[in-house]
Amino acid sequence: MKITLDTVVKTFDTFRAVHGVSLEIESGELIALLGPSGSGKTTILRMVAGLEYADSGSILFGDKDATDIPVRDRGVGFVFQHYALFPHMTVAENIAFGMKVSKRKRSREEIATRVTELLALVRLEGLGDRFPTQISGGQRQRVALARALAVDPRVLLLDEPFGALDANVRRDLRRWLREIHDQLGITTLFVTHDQEEALDLADRVVILEQGRIVQEGTPEEVCRRPNSPFVTKFLGDAHRLVGPVTSGSARVAGGTVAVPSLPDGQAEIFVRPADLSWGEGDIPAEVTRVIDRPDGRRVVVRLEDGTTLELDMPPETRIEKGDRQTLRVRRAHAFPLA
Amino acid sequence: MSKYLRKAKPPRVGDAPAVRRSLIAFVLLVGAVLILAPLVVIFVQAFSQGFSTFARTIAQPDTRHAIFMTVATALIAVPINTAFGIAAAWAITKFDFPGKRLLTVVIEIPFSISPIVAGVAYLFVYGLQGVFGPALQAADIKILFALPGIVLASMFVTAPFVARELIPLMQAQGRDLEEAATSLGASGWRTFFSVTLPNIRWAMLYGVVLCNARVMGEFGAVSVVSGNIRGQTNTLPLHVELLYHDYQTVGAFAAASILTALALVTIVAKVILEHQGAGRAGRPMLAGPAVEAKETHQ
Amino acid sequence: MRRRVLPGLTLSLGITLLYVGLIVALPLGALIFKAASLGPEDYWRIISSGRALASYRVTVLSAAAATVFNLVFGLALAWVLVRYSFPGKRLVDAIVDLPFALPTAVAGIALTTLFAPNGWFGSWLSEAGIRVAYTPLGIMIAMAFTSLPFIVRTVQPVLEDLDPALEEAAQSLGGSDVAIFRKVILPLLVPALLAGVSLAFARSLGEFGAIIFIAGNQPFETEITALLAFIRLEEYDYQAAAAIASVLLITAFAMLAVTNFLQARALRYTARS
Fold first, then answer.
1. Which of C171, C172, C177, C183 to mutate to probe the A interface, most A CBs <10 Å?
2. How many CB atoms within 10 Å of residue A301?
3. Which CATH number fits domain C40-270: 3.40.50.720, 3.30.70.3270, 1.10.3720.10, 3.40.50.620?
4. Can you give the pTM of this predicted structure?
């Protein structure tokens, strides 16, 4: 099912949550809505589900205008942030709920068979008789997914699906959700504030800021060609340098950075820890701190103008506080300063 | 296709206009018959023969004495009950000891017992048929059919009132604050007055207001132990009954209107205190806790 | 056991035990002692006399009817107060507590005046051939009045705290309003409803002041058990009063136990494995 959002606007009281968002989601795609809190991503998801009404604009499912179809007839599977499992029903009853209340009558056996299938799909065989309080958070998450899938939704919507879970449970579930998606091929839209999660899982990432889409593209596109300082910072650790550009070279903190595509004038330059080389180039720096990590050493340096940068080095590098050397910026995302 | 006038929110369960309107109508209608009408009829009856008749009946010596008895009972019973409520809540929430659960249950017992049972029970303690009755009579101490009996019976029926407001609240607040104060060198009393009391004062007042309303309005238990002696041991509610059975309708409703005014003041006080977070907000919920999403390690 | 850090255990526990002992336990103990001193035959004769049995019947049936009425009305009232907004809602919310705040004797004479054959509602009802005052129906109305806030006030906070996502989830799974109410909302209210019902029922069983005015108090017909105990007392038949009062007491204890059991069962899904 292809989904189209056409200049959708949503205002809560006086606060405008979504400003004219347009978006096309191809059938079978797995899309992440990524943004900080208050960026309107959950509101967009809830409007697609029919849990909120748009003030203006329209939402199409295939070619059909779904804007005014109530949630119960929209055929979406929604996984809530805190799962919203019915606490008084067992896992199996939770999964069966949608089939039991459906207008399409199913026999008891049909429902039982489908529940067993779904329990197997989400790898919860044998836990059907437990109550939601009796299983772990990761298991609850999978029950919520099975419950949403039980009604054969045309679209699967997930609101911060892994937000409430521990880091390692989260990583496993992420991979697993991708597998399920590839297996079922169902159009899926999920909301997250975690850029790693979005990049890891999605075919396409839609980045939102203050109710507007600021960039959308494949993980590779948004990582390699962020189109704004906001996206650059939001996607990962980046330090900011400012300086004047003359013929493709920026002067910053007593040295230079190559910025071939930029016109002359002030520019801001974002560098990530892996973009820097120690002992090359012409930017003088002094080591202020060395932080050891399992996969390498993170070195904190201070430039002449007081700016702090961080760079990653291999674990065997010999370096200590007080060392002075020059730096080279190998890669950078640079934007002209207005 | 863009829409201009859309509902802001999709309808929730029961938001259909027909359902909404008929439920509100049903509730208001039944409420008017069952709650509002009694309230109105009291004042209508009390003033049915004009304000002067009302004033005259209120000013009768027997009525004035009944008011005095009611106020005196409340002035003794409510403070004692409050002190007990605080002590019980302190003991139960700040310490662990065997039998704690049982104690909590026993404190709640008067809440589910008929006031008549309470009255009869007091008769078998202090009455001539009772445990201490003969000894008391020999010493010429009057408890039953006098103010002390009325106070005791009132204290029985209201025993849980302050404690049941404080216990859940102090349970939820835990012991950290008091432990911190003690570790900083504060004495027990100092800790109580400067750390505990400021946090529980609204809940305590709430309990006091409800306790007072019940003490002043108690009928069943008091009617057993008071002996119903006109002009001597009649409290205001008993006096209402007496006048009513004497067919002095205006007098009965005039006296009743004083108690009704008290009830209305109680409700207003209750609303104000609930705004301060007392009452319902502090009480435990009678439903399952929401299923938390956070991973629980098993 | 945790080490005691805080002071005041002896004092606070001392006051508590003294109060509970003298004010609550001693009289109840004396009542039980008095009833027990009767001997099984006499005791049984008194509590199973025709008049006593009739009083149980009228008390229990009226209390049950009043409770069922309040179950429906209380749930509707709680629902309306939580889910809808309308002018005067806060006033309605406040006045729901009137039956708790109003002395029972006052409620009794007010209801009697309203429902007596010449009263505002009574005259109207008697034209339709319905007699309320001095019949079990009157007892039921008095009980319904005094126990009205229990169900509203136990259900209301639970309804307020019900996670909206549960309803949204049920809606997204295709549930109709009726199905969602029956299968999701109502079951989650059951523990609170149970608590409210048992409080309301217990209160109705023991109610005295509001009832005696409207009941007519005819032995075998409109005489409630609490009144029978009171009458025995006025007849100086202390043993009979003790026996009948003990029946009310035992019933109250049994209600407490049953309620706790039902509540634990209704909440069993919250138990962690």
1. C172
2. 24
3. 1.10.3720.10
4. 0.89
